[in-house]
Design a protein that fits this description.
The protein has about 120 residues and is mainly alpha-helical. It has one domain. About 45% of the residues lie in helices and about 10% in strands.
């Protein structure tokens, strides 16, 4: 796993993490799944926050699940944002900068060349 680890947690997540670790007798193998779970939560919240702004083509913003990331240049795509949980937050931010958020309808139209971006 990349070093998402604790650097990307907010103060409340740090507090909960250390409270949980200190109140239990964890060995190192037990701690990693907790860190992974917290890291996924941080990433998910970050990605949802970006998507919540809505489609950059038509403005749709009713349901975040209908919004997707479209890479401007498919040749520069290193990974899909929807499967980024094993990446560092820095890598995710860099990859998102190569994208626009679009609704699923506009995304299909972009790929079928009915909409220019």
């Amino acid at each position: 796993m990349s070093d998402i680890i604790l650097d990307d947690l907010d103060a409340e997540q740090y507090r909960k993490f250390y409270e949980d670790i200190c109140s239990n007798n964890y060995d190192e193998d037990d701690i990693q799944p907790i860190i992974t779970k917290l890291s996924k939560s941080v990433i998910r919240n970050y990605v949802v926050g970006i998507k919540a702004k809505g489609c950059q083509t038509c403005g749709y913003n009713r349901y975040v699940g209908a919004l997707e990331f479209h890479h401007y240049d498919k040749n520069s795509k290193l990974f899909s944002i929807c499967s980024c949980y094993d990446k560092s937050m820095d890598d995710i931010k860099k990859e998102i900068k190569k994208c626009i958020v679009v609704c699923s309808n506009c995304h299909r139209e972009i790929h079928s060349r009915h909409v220019d971006i």
